[in-house]
Design a protein that fits this description.
MetI-like fold, about 0% strand, about 85% helix, about 220 residues, membrane
Length: about 220
């Protein structure tokens, strides 16, 4: 990195640190909210797919189609319906994040051995007790893997959300593109990468803490 570029980056953090921190905050808020809502919807839909088999094909097919649509295309398709700003950006991110959580929830719940459920019912558990005390705990590691995949997709795609006025680190990148400023492109791009790595590490640590038995002896 040449000295002039380094000076530009230093000057940015000296003069615009407030704007930078606001962009980071916006990026984190929209990402966390989108992940929370998509996790809730994805897990509920995943459960419905396993108890109402006739809907499984339609629900999974719908979200698989959404998954292959480019993130930017979904954002722009929502503009005529919802306008610009925070709301359409959230909607697009939620739609993009549901598929991995949904697929992993279905796979996790279907992998619960039948004898475990038979044992649960044999000791007098109701359907809800079997779900909360047997099925979800056993499916949880796979569900969390889906949540991790969704989280990384959300952090990356939230960059594009700036294009429709949702703010975040993407606004720094698009400003850099508009002004042809390498320093802003580096600051925005590296910040998104660091945020993605950070959220991945947090979820990895959470997995190791929640499912210690998986790592016993390693």
């Amino acid at each position: 990195m040449d000295s002039s570029l380094w000076e530009q980056i230093t000057n940015y953090f000296t003069t615009d640190i407030g704007a930078y921190l606001l962009s980071v905050k916006e990026h984190i808020v929209i990402s966390v909210l989108a992940l929370a809502v998509s996790a809730l919807i994805g897990i509920i839909l995943g459960y419905l797919c396993t108890v109402q088999r006739k809907y499984e094909k339609w629900i999974i097919s719908l979200f698989q189609v959404l998954r292959i649509v480019p993130s930017l295309a979904i954002l722009f398709l929502l503009i005529p319906v919802m306008g610009t700003g925070f709301q359409p950006a959230m909607t697009a991110l939620i739609l993009l994040a549901i598929p991995p959580i949904l697929m992993n929830t279905v796979a996790g719940l279907e992998e619960v051995p039948d004898f475990m459920l038979e044992t649960a019912y044999a000791v007098g558990m109701s359907n809800w007790q079997a779900l909360w005390k047997v099925r979800l705990p056993l499916a949880a590691p796979l569900i969390l893997t889906g949540v991790k995949t969704a989280a990384i997709e959300i952090v990356a795609s939230a960059t594009l959300a700036a294009k429709i006025g949702a703010g975040g680190l993407g606004s720094i990148i698009f400003t850099g593109l508009g002004l042809n400023r390498i320093d802003l492109l580096l600051i925005g791009g590296i910040s998104v990468a660091v945020l993605s790595i950070a959220i991945g590490l947090v979820l990895d640590r959470s997995e190791r803490w929640l499912f210690k038995y998986k790592y016993t002896g390693k």
